[in-house]
Backbone:
């Protein structure tokens, strides 16, 4: 009986020792594996453009006006935009909210364009350009690209 206990204890020690060695080997092999870092860009994250730029380009795309003529003011994340139409000197005012990669807009004194029948507007940055995409309720799409400095 005593020899069985010693044999079992010896077997137990051998098992524990071998488990410890293999796990140590696994850890050291993992430590030698190089870690490759990749940059994952969150929706709506921009590197080369400000939110004011995005708001200005969105109204330029929606209204078909030159982006340089549009003035933008940030009021705590609500962007107020103004331009004067060259053809008749009429002033237009809008407001924009930017949430992730989505753009919501309205006339300054009007309703938000957020019903199922209103176009959905989004943006995407690619290096030195911003792409503004308008998707209409009939699934047609209008895409305009703007370069940094426009």
Residues:
């Amino acid at each position: 009986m005593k020899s069985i206990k010693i044999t079992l204890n010896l077997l137990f020690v051998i098992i524990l020792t071998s488990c410890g060695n293999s796990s140590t080997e696994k850890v050291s092999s993992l430590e030698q594996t190089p870690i490759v870092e990749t940059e994952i860009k969150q929706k709506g994250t921009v590197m080369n453009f400000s939110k004011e730029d995005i708001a200005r380009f969105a109204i330029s795309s929606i209204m078909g006006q030159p982006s340089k003529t549009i003035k933008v003011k940030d009021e705590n994340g609500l962007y107020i935009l103004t331009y004067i139409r060259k053809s008749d000197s009429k002033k237009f005012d809008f407001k924009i909210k930017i949430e992730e990669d989505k753009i919501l807009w309205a006339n300054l004194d009007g309703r938000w364009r957020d019903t199922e029948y209103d176009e959905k507007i989004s943006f995407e940055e690619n290096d030195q350009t911003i792409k503004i995409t308008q998707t209409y309720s009939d699934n047609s799409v209008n895409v305009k690209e703007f370069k940094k400095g426009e």
Summary: The mean pLDDT is 82. The helical segments are 2-32, 51-63. Residues 10 and 16 are 10 Å apart (CA to CA).
